[in-house]
Amino acid sequence: MPLGKEVRSSSASGRLETQHVSSIITVIDSGRIVQSNGLRDELAETQRYYSILCELWRTADRTTGSGCCVEKLTDDCSEDKQQPEWLERELLSQNRRRHSITQGDEAQMRKQHPIIDSTRRLCSLKIDETISLDNLQKLKLAFEEFERGGSRSIDAKCFGRIVKKCLGLPKTSNAQIQRLFKKIDYLGQGQISWGEFCTHMMHEYKEKQETVRRSKQVAFTLPASMKTLCHGIPIVNIHSSHDGTIVTVREDGVVCCCSPELKPLKTKHLFNEGPASRKSKWASDFILMTEFNKLMIGTGDREIQLYELSTLEPYCQINALETVPLTLDFGCTGPDKCYIVYGDAEGCVTIILISYVGDTLRLWNKLPEIENMPNIAIDDAVLFPNVTFVRWKVHQDWVTQAKYFHSFQAVVSSSKEESTSLVIGCVLPLTDAEQQLDDIREACYEGKTKKIQLSWIPQLRASCDQTVFNISKGVKTFDLCQKHSLLVTGGMDRLIRMWNPHFSGKPNGILKGHSAPITYLHIIPENGQIFSVSIDCTVKIWDIQDQCCLFTADSQASGIHGDISACSYSSAVKSFYFAADCIAVLSLKIRPRLHSRLTVSHDETVMCCGYSEEFRQVVSCSEGSVVKVWDFDTGRQVFEFGGTHDQSAITCMAFDPKGRRLITGGRDGCVKIWNFNNGQCLKTLRKDGECHKVCDCIFLQVHRTFYVMSVGGDRKIDIYPDIPEGLHHVQRPQPSWQDDLRSGHTEDILCVAQCPPSLLATSSYDGEIIVWNVISGRIRCRLVSPLLAEHQNVEGLDTSVPSIIFFKNSKLQHFSSATALLSAGAMGCINIWNVLSGSKLAGSFKAVRNASQQYSWIQFWVPRHRTLVFAFLSPIFKIANQALGSFVANCFFAYTSKFQQKITKLAKTAKDTLLYAADRIGYIYVYNMEKFTAGQKSPRVEGFWRAHTSQITGLQIVDNDQVVLTSSTDYTVRIWSAHGEYIGTFGQSESWNVHISSSWKHPAVPYEVLIDPLSMPHHEILNVKTRSDYIDTDKTGAHKGELKALSWNSQAC
């Protein structure tokens, strides 16, 4: 590689070679930015961090024109922006006789709700996004002053002074600076060094880049759909019509029209068989003239033939060409004007301009026929007043591709000869103005018809009429885009070069990744992407802006094999078509468009969520191995990082006791520890040998030592000491307990829970619960979930225990130690165990809606659908709907669950007084456990509501703010009041404040919950027979974009 070039790795086996630009991404990826461990020279390591970080800022400055990060989070909390509507309503509600807001009102509001002011200050400016290169150098000098004073690190107070001074932000709040300090000091040591500061900034910047790249991710559905070819004749080209119909032409002239799914629609042999002594005619290329309903084919007999596209009947042909048209193109330049362009083996590009196309072709259609085809020789065709002919000598070798681009008013052609690898030239001669004036004068003023004698001697363009690109080993394929002002070329050297089409000196970038010559390139302007295909059947998708590879599909993954004779991308159906050993189609994966009223937090299933009290942030993890960090007080996304478990799903998460580190477990069998504020992986915890899925993990303390504990598919308890400053990034577990090895679980362990100081409980797929002494590692007792009589003979009954929780409350009656263990049982049951006194089952109850509560409801009659719709709302909504003229009434319902869905998550309040249970169809039940006795059938139900439309995967109570966090497989993370009032969904456009109810979504409910049939309560009036199908609760989807109305019997209405 020449000097001054570096290679930047990308996410999909592609890389970019840039000219004279030093990239830091390679250093970040391969350098493993880690803390100094005493074995290296700390000063040299810190200087290395600083050098990389400086280059990072220079790169960002070149990319964005500023000294800040490439992708800044939108600041919706800024002081100078318009106040949210809920804040205006709250201010006006303070004085009902006022109709406008003053600064005094707002100041008074801040006094009443200090959280508004503090939240707004924290959101108004993000320090780490305002640091320029100059600021960075000032910070470095400030840190060096402390080092010269003998201190290798500084505390939070000194850090605050440095930040305010170096960034020129004297009025920046101390709380905001403290938050940044805590993000860097994830171990809570109270000190940070210059190296730690640089490391934090680099990781944060890298993850923001990856977040932008992840938003552009695209992929094909693999493997490809195939249609076997029953012949060995190559297909010369593939094109698609506006409606997505695929047209292919073989060398022997057989045309096949297929549906986008490759179902044959029409097949016809176009070439008539000649005498036996004559060679068969063969097709060199073809193009669709969809504007004129024609199919144009170039043949080896030096002809251009036109057929009706709808019937494939012969229409006319131009014969007696000087050379064989190897590559054809067609372009419309007006309502009834077009160019026909073809390249030949002599390196010439021939252009035929036809005006009044319809009339001209109709005249040619009436000419004498040759072999059942109306025929006109090219010498006669150019005599028509509507036809202009020009032949350019462009290349020294045969033309590999020739295309007309109307947006550039130019013809682009390529060849494998280096000196004229690609040429962008004018269509007609533009420089001889004097000759053009003479032609006009002769034709217009003298009234003479110019006699034209066709000359096949090619013309040479003037240097100012063309742009010549000299490329090593020539060009096989290219594409040109006006929107991005981009020319891309590919050929035998396996490189994709990106050019400014107006300058041929040096390419703007070189994309590397193909291991075979490139045979096809296509630019997708609307998505800013480049599609490329090499002769080894490898397909890649590149991002134009980031100049990186987004997706790669090799022949093994796609199933496409053989020599590619033709390929084409259809924008109508967003699919790639290939002709090799078979006809194949690769379809782009299209993200489903959600209903306008639906809001999602992730693009895939949310597996878990949690709350960090230290930063007042919510963290959620998805099946796509993406972690998102949300601001608890507003619902805004703060940060995101992905690829946490090598694209394997994250299955569980936990926080360390200080709430500054995140622990995640995945299907890849690894447990990882993160600084979730910058995406840095601090430790990887895994066993030797084969790894099994991790189902649950916790952070626990035994005496003064902290441990990370994980359980899962290996059916053993893995314990890792928490050694933050260990020498090794990968850490192995301690030896297993002897009782665990001899008589532990025999099925996958699904859940683990601790009861300090010494109790630990684990539950498994077969319904067994084992209580351990965490200090000795011995089994204390075994518990087996009982089955009710009506469940004894149920086939395929799910007896697993996905959630367990310890309950410690001195007011629990009939529990000698006031310690109980609650577990999720079969068919919606919750079991209560007395683990310290006999290890017996103390009680069992079903999570059912069995309380009589007062609700408001509205009924609507929809005549068109003959449907009666009930909307069950809270009393707050009553007045509003009366104003709308709807019939509102109060009634009592006895809520009893019809579905008896399994409980998936259990949670409790801080004082162990309330129990929250969540089930598979998204319901949450709240029970008062304070006065529950073993003789009672069920604890008192405090309330229930439906939070999601599918299984709840995360449930946590935030006691200080009296709210509930939930996550679900329906892609959402939501926040509720302790009584089930809907506050909002993380990721929604409107912000909220958890302390101001007017900012909540309540009394509204999530749209998908409102329209879901399973949200209807169980009442006798709703039990009438209907014509609707039985609802299978196991098949309820995560998203429902349309209302599934119940078809009520007309007699019942």
Automatic annotation (TrEMBL):
One Gene Ontology term of the molecular function aspect: calcium ion binding
InterPro entries assigned: EF-hand-dom_pair, EF_hand_dom, Quinoprotein_ADH-like_sf, WD-EF-hand_domain, WD40/YVTN_repeat-like_dom_sf, WD40_repeat_CS, WD40_repeat_dom_sf, WD40_rpt
UniProt-listed PROSITE patterns: EF_HAND_2 (PS50222), WD_REPEATS_1 (PS00678), WD_REPEATS_2 (PS50082), WD_REPEATS_REGION (PS50294)
Ranges of residues in domain EF-hand: 172-207
Name of the protein in its database record: WD repeat-containing protein on Y chromosome
The WD repeat ranges on this chain: 511-552, 599-640, 643-684, 742-774, 945-977
SMART domains found in the cross-reference section: WD40
Entry keywords, A to Z: Repeat, WD repeat
Source domain of life: Eukaryota
